[in-house]
Specification:
By secondary structure, this protein is an all-alpha fold. About 55% of the residues lie in helices and about 5% in strands. The chain has helices spanning about 1-20, 35-60, 145-165, 185-205, 205-220, 225-235, 240-255, 260-270, 275-285, 290-305, 305-320, 325-335, 340-355, 360-374; strands spanning about 85-90, 105-110. It has a two-stranded antiparallel ribbon. Helix 4 (about 185-205) packs antiparallel against helix 5 (about 205-220), helix 7 (about 240-255) packs across helix 8 (about 260-270) and helix 12 (about 325-335) packs antiparallel against helix 13.
């Protein structure tokens, strides 16, 4: 730039000196080749070149790096997931002039609805699309006919599916067993129903209703042992001992082969002064080897001063439980009453050696041994 300025100053100086001469002295001088205009062109070219170099250097040093081009995202194909096929059973008649009949059972999957479509999807009646394998292929030149057949098949399938009754899950209703059902049932069946109804009431805590149900069961079938035993137990728990005894006596009168019930009735009769001995004697043939039953009968015989029979029953009971000290003591008492002193002494000694005697009973046995030792 300084070079250009100096050249311009020289030109100005020369122009000022030429203006000082008189006009008369000015003569036109023919311009020679390579004179003043060429110099001006050179100066302009140098100036333009310098300006271009300066501008290029300025752009070079002040250039900012261009941002990296953003990578174009890969095009992702939106594919709707296939839905589970819905099997529609429809009878489709053969359509003429189709080369083959349309199969009766059309497996129609639900057409997947793309998420971009705004149209709502009807869940109640999804569109039915027939499978290509199930429908006959129409010739390529008769596309309209194939579409018409497919539309007819879809309409028939949808109609058949709409007409098919919807299967509802069965309702599970918990119902109490009725006391009796119908007159066509046999007495044992009605009695069993009444017994189950009484048990349901008992489980719900309705004791009074359960007792009524058990009584109704026994009116239908007096030999229903389970109902009789349950009723007696409930009556005893309700402090209704008289009714419990009546039920037990009625049951034993129908069937004496109930040793456990006979023992229960006998205990109740002992408390109230009833004929407990007769009750046990009546069911004795069915007691078998029941040691508890035989010892209980022996105790009642002993209380009735029938020591010989009591000793026999104690002896049979001890065969089932040889280490029972109470029974040995009872046997000793009856043997001593029968004047069978050596046998009584042996029985008392066996009772003293048993571990289950209470201190009071043990003291009683020792006194009896002292009497026998005199």
């Amino acid at each position: 730039m300084s070079l250009i300025n100096k050249m311009l100053q020289d030109l100005d100086a020369r122009g000022s000196h030429a203006g000082a001469a008189t006009p008369t002295e000015v003569r036109p001088v023919p311009m020679r080749e390579g004179g003043q205009p060429v110099r001006a062109l050179i100066i302009c070219g140098v100036a333009l070149a310098g300006a271009g170099i300066a501008f290029g250097g300025w752009r070079l040093f002040n250039r900012t790096p261009a941002p990296a081009p953003m990578p174009m995202p890969a095009r992702v194909a939106m594919v709707a997931p296939p839905l589970a096929p819905i099997v529609v059973r429809a009878v489709v008649p053969a359509l003429a002039p189709a080369p083959a009949a349309v199969p009766a059972i059309v497996s129609a999957p639900v057409a997947p609805a793309p998420p971009a479509l705004p149209a709502p999807v009807r869940l109640a009646a999804p569109p039915v699309v027939a499978a290509e394998a199930d429908l006959p292929r129409a010739p390529s030149k008769n596309v309209a006919l194939a579409h018409r057949r497919r539309a007819q098949a879809e309409a028939l399938a949808a109609t058949a599916r709409a007409g098919e009754p919807q299967r509802m899950p069965p309702n599970v209703v918990k119902m109490a067993t009725p006391a009796w059902q119908g007159k066509d049932m046999s007495p044992p069946q009605r009695a069993e129903n009444a017994y189950r109804g009484a048990l349901n009431a008992l489980q719900d805590g309705r004791v009074t209703e359960a007792i009524k149900g058990l009584e109704q069961t026994l009116r239908i079938d007096p030999r229903h042992e389970a109902a009789r035993e349950t009723l007696i137990r409930l009556l005893l728990e309700s402090k209704r001992q008289d009714e419990a005894m009546q039920q037990a006596q009625l049951s034993l009168s129908l069937d004496a082969n109930q040793p456990a019930l006979a023992m229960l009735l006998a205990r109740l009769q002992v408390e109230q002064g009833g004929p407990a001995l007769e009750t046990l004697t009546r069911s004795l043939p069915y007691a078998g080897g029941n040691g508890e039953y035989l010892a209980f009968l022996a105790g009642l015989l002993q209380r009735d001063k029938r020591h010989r029979e009591a000793a026999e029953q104690y002896t049979q009971a001890l065969r089932t439980a040889p280490q029972n000290g109470l029974w040995w003591m009872g046997l000793g008492i009856s043997l001593q009453a029968e004047k069978r002193l050596p046998e009584a002494k042996d029985a008392f000694e066996r009772a003293k050696a048993a571990p289950e005697l209470t201190p009071e009973l043990l003291a009683f046995v020792e006194r009896r041994l002292e009497q026998l030792a005199r």
